[in-house]
């Protein structure tokens, strides 16, 4: 991958603490990728940081690249390494492309993958674990995503957080046994509750090959 993409991913993680205002402003305009690669989303899990980049290839097709970095003891990030990438088929920053996929829905699954990385967590086998990555395509009417995280095990405590979609794609990294319920919050503040408008993202703890999973969430 071109060196400038790795540098962009590293810079995005380094500036993560300053992202909130910039992300909110960018989400309002949903800029395109014609002028160069953009940081679509960032996902930090403990000492691992993941950056999803969007760019346009020389043949004109929109593509994505996933990078990761490790946080040092002093809080800085190591140089970013490339994990995966490929042609998308649509441009997530193009409202018409996105609307054609969503067909009236606020959200839709957009891709999933898995890889084994060193996490250093106590439950990891010699420090390595299989992480699952989910991407969710987000409609322009969605201002934020309400996310509930749950883990397997009797002592697992659910948690909630919110994510601001910037360029039409939200990235989530899950450890084995984790489950996320992703709900859209539209610009007027309302949270849709009808079936098919929220999704449950999972990462099986059954071992390699079990893979990530996704299904419409039952919001009851």
Task: Describe the overall structure.
The protein is mainly beta and 220 residues long. Helices cover 14% and strands 44% of the residues. A 5-stranded antiparallel sheet has the order 8-7-10-11-12, with no helix packed on it. Residues 20-29 have low confidence and may be disordered.
> Would you tell me the structural class of the helices and strands?
mainly beta
N-to-C span:
45 Å
Strand order of the largest sheet: 8-7-10-11-12
Largest sheet: 5 strands, antiparallel
Estimate what percentage of residues fall within beta strands: 35-45%
Uncertain segments = 20-29
Would you report the number of β strands? 12
Overall morphology? globular
Annotation field: number of helices: 3
* Helix proportion range: 10-25%
Walk me through the topology.
Blueprint: H1 3-14, H2 19-29, E1 38-45, E2 48-56, E3 62-70, E4 81-87, H3 95-102, E5 107-118, E6 128-138, E7 142-151, E8 159-163, E9 169-174, E10 178-186, E11 199-203, E12 212-216
Antiparallel strand pairs: 1-2, 2-3, 3-4, 5-6, 6-9, 7-8, 7-10, 10-11, 11-12
Outline of the structure:
This protein is 14% helix and 44% strand.
What are its keywords?
globular; five-stranded antiparallel beta sheet; 220 residues; 12 strands; four-stranded antiparallel beta sheet; single chain; mainly beta
């Amino acid at each position: 991958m071109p060196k400038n993409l790795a540098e962009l991913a590293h810079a995005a993680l380094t500036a993560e603490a300053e992202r909130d205002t910039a992300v909110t402003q960018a989400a309002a305009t949903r800029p395109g990728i014609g002028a160069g690669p953009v940081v679509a989303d960032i996902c930090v899990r403990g000492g691992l940081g993941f950056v999803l980049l969007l760019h346009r290839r020389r043949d004109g097709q929109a593509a994505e690249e996933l990078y990761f970095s490790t946080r040092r003891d002093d809080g800085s990030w190591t140089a970013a390494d490339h994990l995966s990438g490929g042609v998308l088929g649509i441009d997530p920053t193009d409202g018409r492309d996105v609307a054609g996929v969503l067909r009236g829905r606020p959200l839709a699954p957009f891709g999933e993958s898995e890889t084994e990385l060193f996490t250093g967590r106590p439950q990891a086998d010699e420090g390595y674990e299989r992480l699952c990555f989910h991407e969710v395509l987000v409609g322009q009417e969605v201002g934020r995503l309400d996310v509930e995280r749950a883990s397997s095990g009797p002592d697992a405590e659910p948690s909630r957080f919110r994510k601001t979609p910037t360029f039409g794609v939200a990235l989530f990294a899950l450890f084995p046994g984790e489950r996320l319920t992703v709900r859209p919050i539209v610009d007027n503040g309302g949270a849709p509750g009808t079936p098919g408008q929220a999704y449950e993202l999972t990462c099986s703890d059954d071992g390699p090959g079990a893979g990530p999973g996704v299904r419409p969430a039952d919001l009851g």
